[in-house]
Specification:
The chain is an alpha+beta fold. The protein has 4 helices and 5 strands; from the N terminus they run βαααββαββ. It has a 5-stranded antiparallel beta sheet with strand order 2-3-1-4-5.
Length: 161
């Protein structure tokens, strides 16, 4: 990994947006995951749909989808992409206790969608926190990471393999 060049840096060290115009347009998919760890009582509140601000999971899902579509506005050197699909799944997990957030993003284009998937997860987790912080301020957002990416010149990546 140490021999890989950082593509967003010029030889002089200044940051720039990578020119992807010569790259082939291929289907690219990225999956990211994270979790919001909370007390059992807070998780029960979310699952029962009794949060004062409303539907926590539905709101977080929409926030994650919106965030993926606007990643280029948040991360300075990301390209604006016409995403083909964004899914955000939120799974209550009593063993944490908390919510596991998983996003999948697909595009047919010249650059990958890892940042869009990671942004979707991050914003969905933050939205969960915001929706129930009145019940518990000590929640933790943890483990946000790229699970898998396919397509493009670098091929397939799977975490842990």
């Amino acid at each position: 990994m140490a021999d890989k060049a950082l593509t967003h840096l010029r030889a002089s060290g200044e940051a720039h947006m990578v020119d992807v115009s010569a790259k082939a347009s291929t289907e690219r998919v990225a999956i990211a995951e994270g979790r919001v760890v909370m007390s059992k009582d807070t998780l029960d509140l979310v699952v029962a749909g009794n949060a004062k601000k409303g539907d926590v999971l539905g709101t977080a899902r929409i926030a994650g989808i919106m965030a993926a579509k606007r990643t280029h506005e948040l991360i300075p050197l990301c390209h604006p992409l016409a995403l083909s699909q964004v899914t955000v799944d939120l799974t209550p997990d009593p063993s944490l206790p908390g919510i596991v957030v998983r996003a999948s993003v697909k595009v047919t284009g010249q650059t990958g969608v890892e940042m869009e998937a990671l942004t979707a997860v991050s914003v969905a987790c933050l939205t969960i926190y915001d929706m129930v912080k009145a019940a518990e301020r000590g929640m933790r957002i943890e483990g946000i990471h790229l699970v898998e990416k396919t397509g493009g010149k670098s091929g397939t990546y799977r975490a842990g393999s």
